[in-house]
Amino acid sequence: MRNSPFYLFIKKPVVIGLISFIILLVVSQYIAYQKYLINENEQKKEINNQVNLIKDKLQSLVMHSYSATKTLGYIVERNGIPADFDSIASELLNLNKYFDVVELVDGDGFITHVYPLKDNQVIGFNIIKSTEASSGALATIKRKDFFIAGPVNLKQGGIGIVSRQPILIDGDFSGFSAVVTKLSTFFNDLNIDAFNENRFVYQLSRVNVETGQEEFFLENDMSSFKEFAVPIEMSVGEWKLYVVPALSEFNTGVWFSIFGFLIAIAGSLGIWFLAGQSERLNKLVSIKLKEQESELKLIYETTKKRIKKSESNLRKAQKIAQLGSWELDIEKQKLSWSKEMYRIFEKDSKHFEVTHNAFYNSIHPEDRDMVSKIYKYSVEKNKPYQITYRLSLDNEQIKYVEEQCETFYNDNQVPVKSFGIIQDITDRKKTEGILKNRELLYRSLTSNAPVAIFNMNAVGDYTYVNEEWLKYSGMNFIEAMGSGWQNALHPEDRERVLDELQESILTNIKYNSEWRFQDKNGKITNLAVKITKLLDANNDLYGHIGIASDITERIDNEKELLNYKNNLENLVNLRTQELSDSKDALLNLLEDINFQSIELEKEKVKAQSADLMKSAFLATMSHELRTPMNSIIGFTGILLKEFAGPLNEEQKKQLSMVKTSGQHLLGLINDVLDISKIEAGKLNVSIYPFNYLTTLEKTIDFLLPQVSKKGLIIKTEISSMDISITSDERRIEQVLLNLLSNAIKFSNKGTIKIKVDIIDDLLVTQVIDQGIGIEQRDLNKLFMPFIQLDGGLSRTHEGTGLGLAICKSLIEKLGGTIQVQSKRGEGSNFTFKLPIEDVNNK
């Protein structure tokens, strides 16, 4: 073969050079031709991109024009031409970058409103009578719908597109709402200078529906470029867009052809020259191959060491993060684990065989079905997943793990391999459980606390409030979150409170102030508020906690005592003035005056002393006794519910005695404060309509445990099933509670009957018991304060003797009367009457 004439002919350098020239010429010219085609396609693609961009912008212009004119037309149709037309038009221009002018046209075609007016002096111009603008206007009237007209030589200069929306009032045409877009504005938004563009020539046209002729927007003559016309589908007529290359660019594929030809010549000459040097070249190639082999071997060894080091680092990282990985070859059903997987599953890597079944047998029985279904769904839908489940280990230990998995597919979308990572999150689950229990305990304690408790983040937004806070504010939990809590503040206090809070947060000091809450019904609650910052483990601020206690009654008492003091001083001043007016008479009785002055001064000192003592006494009773009593009762209740831990029977018994005694003492304090207000004539009532029977039912339900405990029966006889009364619901409920509590207290058997009637616009309520009764001679002492008929150390019933005195004062304050009928040993009948309507407003 090597000695054949053909082989020897082929081996000649000239032949080799010629063959090389032919091959290089064919290859280079083929590449040049492909480059020529690529350039042609890129130019077409660029033209198509420009066309699509302008089409999209034009469609966007139509959409925005329709929305703007429809909005303006709707305003005029509903409310007439708005007085603030300029502000509405300005807002439309700000919202839509395509618009230059907003106009209103009346039913006769006259432009009546234009914004902006500067450089647009077209008010009074009649578009219907205009030769150029009438066709678009008439088309809009005929369509009775949105229409875009153009091209229009604008009176204010330039070429524009006018979008009009007919204004129809009661079905009759009453004018247009219109927006004008200058073509220059439209092209500027596309970064196109349609008049000075060097690469492309642009043209936009609209086909006249009547004549069928194209009306061009620009001066460019496009009659010879119909093949570049692109129709644009629009609901307002047929439009066409032209994008024509301005110059015929030189195709660089020609240069590639020339360069390829030169390369073919140079390459063939070089091959011809080198053909005789094959031996030298073979030697050089052999040397280079050996050098490359040595370099490749060095690279292989270096890479191998780096891979081993990376694998070692990966194993260390997985061990630190308690993170293992697994890989499943789906075709071979072969499962492989990383070393950390054996530690997580507590298996011996030397003796444990990693199989699909062994893997699933290690999963907790209650979680196996869930894991299997999720994996199958992930493979079928080609979706990665992340789940948490439990492991049931050989030593009966339970572990929580978090798994992430992704499946890989071949070109035919057949799954070939699944790869997953598993992390031991047992410690994290335990921590989450502890935190959850702490959160539940915190919520339980705050929900039952007798004061308002709230949490704020670092910027002052609420993240939690308890039930007492919601009761004070009259809001629900969702309304109070974020900055919504500010709506509970009294309008007169809001700015002050927010300024104080901001200063406290900025200066990092404790907050202590007084707020007023006003609920949706207008009820005002005075609160003493303290706020303390919350710090995390790094001593960084992450929020605040606040406590607010109700001081409304203390504030009211202070106001009443101040009024009492002022009245007393006024009385003394009046007496002094009277003495001054009687100067002549007093001169005759100088000795008596001196004596009386000394006595008056003594009485004044006594009155002031008594006033100060009463002020101090009431303030102390209100703030220093009632507030801690509320806390004692509230936290005793929390202990009895065993939120803080279990109690034995003796502890429950003693805590129940503490709670009962606290409630009794709190009732005593409340009664003393009420009788003090009554004596001073400062008892305030809140009059509003309410359902009397609902209040009665609520009071009876509250006392049912006491009734059942004594084996009594409560019956009601009500003449009407719908009784509404305008009075003070809380005070009437207080009267009912006192009368029914007394009936229960002094009855050991029998029935307590409640009768309710309406007689001559009066609500008549009778509380009749079968208790011990009252002697006739004691009836006149019954409504006197601090009087107990069963007195002395041997009395068998608890009480302060204030309840009936308070009831009588409350009933009379509300415009009613109360009386009693009783016989010793036969029971008592307490009857009170109240007006249905508020007598003070008649």
TrEMBL record:
It comes from the Bacteria. The chain crosses the membrane at residues 12-33, 254-275. Its EC number is 2.7.13.3. Residues 511-563 form the PAC domain. The keyword Repressor does not apply. Residues 438-508 form the PAS domain. Signal peptide: none annotated. InterPro entries: CHASE_dom (IPR006189), HATPase_C_sf (IPR036890), HATPase_dom (IPR003594), His_kinase_dom (IPR005467), HisK_dim/P_dom (IPR003661), HisK_dim/P_sf (IPR036097), PAC (IPR001610), PAS (IPR000014). Residues 111-190 form the CHASE domain. SMART domains: CHASE, HATPase_c, HisKA, PAC, PAS. Keywords: ATP-binding, Kinase, Membrane, Nucleotide-binding, Phosphoprotein, Transferase, Transmembrane, Transmembrane helix, Two-component regulatory system. The keyword Lyase does not apply. GO terms for molecular function: ATP binding. It is an enzyme of class 2 (transferase). Residues 620-838 form the Histidine kinase domain. It catalyses: ATP + protein L-histidine = ADP + protein N-phospho-L-histidine. NCBIfam families: sensory_box. This is histidine kinase.
